[in-house]
Amino acid sequence: MTHDQISLWVKVQEDKGLDVESVKTRLKNMVIETPSWGYGDSGTRFKVFKQQGVPRNPFEKLEDAAEVQRVTGVCPTVAVHIPWDKVEDYGAFKKHAQDLGLRIGAVNPNLFQDDDYALGSLCNPRAEVRQRALAHMLECVEIMNKVDSNILSLWLADGTNYPGQDDFRKRKHYLMDALTEVYQALPEDARILIEYKMFEPAFYHTDLADWGMAFNYALKLGDKAQVLVDLGHHAQGTNVAHIVSTLLDEGKLGGFHFNNRKYADDDLMVGTIDPYELFLISLELVSGEQDPATSECADNVSYMIDQSHNIEKKIPAMIRSVMNIQTAFAKALLVPREELKQAQEKGDVIRAEFIVKEAFETDVRPLLAMVRQEMGLQPDPLKAYVEGPYDKKILARGIGGQGW
Ligand code: PSV
Ligand code: MN
To answer: What CATH number is attached to the domain comprising 203?
Structure first.
């Protein structure tokens, strides 16, 4: 991207009335959290594929995350998953993150990989299993204290496979009781984000099936409980942007798990299958930030990536996802809100749709190149990674890194 191309882009946008400086500032302030599990080996239900150079322990996962941060500049935090990232000394773990210029982000409990959880964890019909799951959640709260995390991220894999298998309402009460205890144990300034998922691993029902159910628990628990939207967890055709907007308006949008899907919870790289959906979601987020009625909630939304890179290389995949989020967000920032508002109020459907689409179709590469250069980065993070030494250096780790 030449200097002239960038200057021309700025001129065209300024002529259209865009405040390029504030758009740049917003982009520079983005924070996108990457998941420790996105650096490890993963696969499908059928096979975990092993790649050479994958981290062998949680410390090395942080090192990979630091590499993503080095080239993107917007990924200073890393989500961890317990027990996958269980370590002896969390002080040393936190220090390792700090030394790499990172912080620990959300702590994710694991309520799905224990033999005891076949019939559920917090909603299991057996009291001793529920108790065990609750103890694990409380252990994660303890870890939050040790690593200075302020988000407990809950994905509940609980559900049933067959009609009649268990009592929906009983399970609902078990969950409420457990979440109440966890909520009370949360650190002072921390939040619990409740993730919903329509199906899988359970197929008849899941105990937290949709945003309405997650919202209901969050509402009853209190201000420190909010909803987490994972882009792969809805029925085909669901209008996720509308869900985002509703949650924002209610002050209950806590965070995202960005990824992309074609069919179900595919955990593909963000923005690869449906970039327009990602843009429309970004539009709601930007609109939420710019409206004083919703800005407090919007400003605290945690942008996290949740992916499993099965066939692609982990670090470049993560970089691509970050870039795709930035692209969608940059386009959303271009929408002339006042003009859009006027078109909406006049009922000018054609104009309103055009305004939105035009922003989506605008090439924001010059803008992002400029932002990155001003942040002291290379304009193309992927190229910076590929040309750097890290990709080769990690090969020495060999095959057989940590996976699920
Ligand atoms: C499984 O669906 C899942 O992808 C959930 O989205 C969680 O957030 C993630 O795994 C980590 O447990
Ligand atoms: Mn998720």
So the answer is: 3.20.20.150
